[in-house]
Amino acid sequence: MTKAIDVHCHLSTRPQYEAWGPYLAAMEHYYKFQSDVRSEAEMVEDLRRADVRACIIGWDAAAGSGGPPLTNDYVADLVRRFPDTFPGGWAMVDPWRGREALREAERCLTTLGLMGLKFQATAQAFFPDDHRFYPLYDLCRSLGKAVQFHSGTTGFGAGMPGGMGLKLKYCRPIPHLDDVAADFPDLTIIACHPSWPWQDEMIAVCLHKANVFMEMSGWSPKYFSEALKREIRGRLQDRVMFGSDYPVLGYERLFRDWESEGYPDAVLEKVYLRNAERILGLRA
Questions:
Q1: Pick from 181, 235, 190, 248: nearest CA to 209
Q2: Domain 4-280, what architecture?
């Protein structure tokens, strides 16, 4: 039986590490993980041992931070080859590519069958509420697909001089995600990560906008703010989903830390499985 659906899982294969390029070393230092290259089959076995089904993610930030993409075709092929492990995949397009980005997004969401778009606004260097990028969100809305936005700080460039030039301002929930949610009330919006240092802002957006949800990847739950822990037990228990940021955080540690926080079993079941099933239409 599946223990959890991971809605935010990167790959541990060579194309992923090549796509992260110069940011990989900073992430290894920040998260204290070793980027061991696995084959696709080895990664699948890693997730199967953890009883996890995971939504994997493409990568494209050429205009913002450079580096090669992790192609959406590669992600879609893995979803096709390993459907029991990968119930879906997030496409990523560089929003600065304009009409080309829109064409690629439509191809990914229709021809390739990917589940939605993911943006990392700090690495891609754009404000999500810039109206130039609204056609991408409108496409997702029209197709009934979700959009994932990175929120809060990032392991890219963390602890390096100048943060390797990356600017955190792009991933602040208010006004950027709040404006998008207000302008697209029929669009399902997922805020990636606990949004530190703006956790209270993200809680406010999620409580105010019924089309906004959160996933908790990239952090051990023991480091969540007390306000966020309280809301997961209470008003947000139906709005929060499990995510890992694998491979930078492993499942054994994450499950241990989630289960040491004293959440009721019913809340953990929602976070691990039921909310992703309902919000994203995924199958455990």
A1: 181
A2: Alpha-Beta Barrel (3.20)
Structure tokens at 199: 């956790």
Tens digit of each residue's pLDDT (9 = 90 or more) over 243-252: 999 999 999 9
Nearest to 31 by CA among 284, 253, 260, 270: 253
Write the burial class of residue 186 (CB in 10 Å: 0-12 exposed, 13-18 middle, 19+ buried): exposed
Residue with tokens 């952090």: 219
Band of the pLDDT at 140, cuts 50, 70, 90? very high
- Residue 268: name the closest of 1, 2, 3 by CA: 3
Do 263 and 233 form a contact (C-beta atoms < 8 A)? yes
**Which two tokens mark 166?**
């990356």
The 3-class SS string of 193-220 reads CCCCCCHHHHHHHHHHCCCEEEECCCCC
Cα 272 to Cα 16, 217, 228, 242, 254, distances in angstroms: 25, 12, 17, 5, 11
User: What is the reported pLDDT for 271?
Assistant: 98
CA distance to 29, 102, 206, 211, per residue, from 196 (Å):
19, 30, 14, 21
Neighbours of 100 (CB within 10 A): 11
Closest CA to 282 of 21, 3, 7, 1: 7
Q: Is the peptide bond before 95 cis (omega within 30 degrees of 0)?
A: no
Beta carbons of 36 and 13 less than 8 angstroms apart: no
Claim: this prediction has a pTM higher than 0.85: yes
How many Å apart are CA 2 and CA 5, to the nearest integer? Answer: 7
How far apart, in Å, are the Cα atoms of 96 and each of 44, 65, 120, 168, 175? 33, 12, 12, 18, 20
Confirm if 91 and 75 have CB atoms less than 8 A apart.
yes
